[in-house]
From TrEMBL:
GO terms for molecular function: enzyme inhibitor activity. It comes from Crotalaria pallida. Gene3D superfamilies: Invertase/pectin methylesterase inhibitor family protein. Residues 1-27 form the signal peptide. This is Pectinesterase inhibitor domain-containing protein. Belongs to the PMEI family. Residues 33-176 form the Pectinesterase inhibitor domain.
Length: 181
């Protein structure tokens, strides 16, 4: 019995030595299942780069399913909406003309609606398994950003960067949610 144990031990040690001595360049590289899921999901969105960047920057995406990816994107929407609302408030403090103040007030109202209505309803819909309402919330957020951008045209306001970021993230979110329908 000890001879058999010795042979097994020697065999195991040799196997370990062989595995250690194989250069990593000979090992086949592969993408984890979730990286493939992220890439295939992002290919179905209107902005692949925004999708990849948003999802891969979140550590939770590595173990998420499509619903989880959609929830991550809703959180990205929330961050973008907060950024845009903060920029709007910053511009309101220095606005000089009536048209600027009016446009900024309108934009603040739109971003507030995204934060108080669209984001919570999208989150709740995804958590409850009713993705249609999540898609509607994301589409509403994209539209609000576009409306804000239209309000600011021709009156020298610099919200385009924030409006475009919000629109793009919301459109990507809606496309990801659509995969759940």
């Amino acid at each position: 019995m000890t001879t058999l144990n010795s042979l097994i031990l020697i065999f195991c040690l040799q196997a370990v030595l062989v595995m250690i001595s194989i250069p990593s360049s000979h090992c086949r590289t592969f993408k984890p299942r979730n990286e493939n899921l992220i890439e295939s999901t992002c290919k179905k969105t209107p902005n692949y780069n925004v999708c990849i960047q948003s999802l891969k920057s979140n550590p939770g995406s590595s173990s998420a399913d499509v619903r989880g990816l959609a929830l991550i994107m809703v959180n990205v929407m929330k961050a973008k909406a907060n950024d845009a609302l903060n920029k709007t408030h910053e511009l309101q403090r220095v606005a000089t003309g009536h048209k600027q103040k009016e446009a900024l007030s309108s934009c603040a109202s739109k971003y507030n609606a995204i934060l108080v209505a669209d984001i919570p309803s999208a989150t709740e819909a995804l958590l409850k398994g009713d993705p249609k309402f999540a898609e509607d919330g994301a589409n509403d957020a994209a539209n609000e950003a576009t409306y804000c951008e239209n309000d600011c045209r021709g009156i020298n306001l610099s919200l385009t960067k924030w409006n475009n970021a919000m629109h793009d993230v919301a459109a990507v979110t809606a496309a990801i949610v659509r995969n759940l329908l």
